[in-house]
Amino acid sequence: MDSNKAWDDFTKTGSVKSYLLYRMYSRLNQDGVRGQIDEIVDKRANSQRE
Questions:
Q1: Containing domain of residue 7, as a range?
Q2: Domain count, the chain
Q3: Is the pTM here over 0.85, yes or no?
Q4: 1 touches 17 (CB < 8 A)
Q5: Contact at 8 Å (CB) between 9 and 24?
């Protein structure tokens, strides 16, 4: 499992668990740019819901 797989699961299922896994993996992989990643993820998550 990695952030890409977790993101795919999230976009397919809309599952909160997949989203949280995605956030967790993003943090592990890219701790230095966490703020930017979180912003992008939040925007994507919002656009997925619409």
A1: 3-49
A2: 1
A3: no
A4: no
A5: no
